[in-house]
Design a protein that fits this description.
29% of the residues lie in helices and 24% in strands. It starts with 9 loop residues before the first strand and ends with a strand. By secondary structure, it is α/β, with parallel strands linked by helices. It has 13 helices and 17 strands. Strands 4, 7, 8, 9, 12, 13, 14, 15, 16 and 17 form a 10-stranded mixed beta sheet that branches. The chain has a 3-stranded antiparallel beta sheet with strand order 1-2-3. Strands 5-6 form a two-stranded antiparallel ribbon.
Length: 351
């Protein structure tokens, strides 16, 4: 990554104005949140970094927290080229940000976002001065978030750690705060949706998805976690293999202008029977991925799952989803790189 484009990133009144200033080689450059997110996508276009360790999991359904934490931190450092975790986080987040971490707990407890990976992210944010009240772990539905064994528990007391919340009922339509959904629906190319208030409350979002098969979309990795997990009517947008709905919903400013980084739990992969967990079709993958290009991460997820399906005698995703995939539309919208030939993955072994 360029060393002089985001150094000393300063957010001034982001919540009120959406404006930011980046200091570049001593010259102040006016930059909005949208411009910053666009810059991160551009600089990280098609680029994925992963850290791999055979010791990441004690079993198919039990992670090794100490190893996963180190993998997460190393992946971030490798992606940014920075020596320390704090230096790496400053490439994406400023201490004045309010940061939302979008979990994926639909298939918890044994295929939800890794608690150890999230813990590493939280420690990293704290290391650059972000207090617990401005670190918010959230999921769409309560029953998924607090499911026994998920590793997460609701918390509204910052003295006990970062806030952990769910968005509430779909009908909870209000403006303001971070619970519920916006009162007035927003337009996107596939229709209208009430987007989560959390997206407006936070100045920065970190997407922390998993990699799994999805019977309707093909896969669930980065993009669907941010789209269907942040609107009040996801059930309206599963037709035609979610193509182009995922791309259209993600293209709204409340998502594309807020997501700074994707830190993906690739410890296990579900290659069939998703999106719910199923041990019959789940295998160890032992990786943590980091990228700023959600489209490239989804494209790579399609490749991984297709390879595993072929290996295990399952039909290709292209046959199961004749309507095609949303990735081409996402690339056309400028959200990232979908073409597998243009995606560069660097895998580092954990020492």
């Amino acid at each position: 990554m360029k060393k002089d484009t985001r150094r000393d990133f300063l957010v001034k009144g982001v919540a009120a104005t959406g404006a930011a200033v980046a200091a570049t080689t001593g010259t102040a450059v006016f930059q909005t949140e949208a411009a910053f997110a666009r810059q991160l996508r551009k600089e990280g276009a098609g680029r994925l970094v992963a850290v791999e360790s055979a010791k990441a999991m004690k079993s198919l359904n039990q992670e090794n927290p100490r190893v996963v934490v180190k993998m997460t931190n190393d992946a971030l450092r490798h992606f940014t080229g920075k020596r320390t975790v704090a230096q790496a986080w400053r490439e994406f987040i400023h201490p004045t940000d309010t940061v939302g971490l979008k979990l994926n707990c639909l298939a918890s407890p044994n295929l939800g976002t890794s608690p150890a990976m999230v813990n590493a992210i939280v420690k990293g944010l704290q290391s650059i001065g972000i207090p617990n009240e401005r670190i918010i772990l959230y999921e769409q539905y309560k029953n998924q978030l607090v499911r026994r064994g998920s590793g997460f528990a609701l918390n509204d007391d910052p003295s006990k750690g970062p806030l952990v919340v769910h968005l509430g009922k779909k009908s909870h339509l209000v403006d303001g705060g971070y619970l519920g959904y916006e009162k007035n629906p927003s337009q996107h190319e596939s229709g209208t949706s009430n987007y989560a208030n959390m997206l407006k409350h936070c100045t920065a979002l970190i997407n922390v998805p998993v990699i799994k098969d999805h019977s309707l979309a093909g896969v669930t990795v980065a993009m669907k976690n941010m789209t269907h997990g942040n609107i009040n009517n996801p059930h309206h947008y599963h037709e035609h293999d979610c193509n182009p709905q995922i791309a259209d919903i993600y293209n709204h400013p409340l998502i594309k202008d807020k997501v700074r980084l994707n830190v993906c739990d690739g410890l296990r992969v579900l290659y069939d029977g998703g999106p719910q967990d199923n041990n019959r079709f789940k295998v160890l993958h032992n990786r943590i991925y980091v990228c700023s290009d959600a489209v490239a991460l989804d494209s790579w997820g399609f490749q991984i799952i297709d390879e595993m399906r072929k290996k295990n005698g399952k039909q290709p995703l292209s046959e199961r989803h004749p309507k095609g995939f949303y990735l081409a539309k996402a690339e056309k919208l400028g959200l990232g790189i979908a073409d597998a030939a243009r995606i560069k993955l660097k895998v580092h072994k954990l020492a």
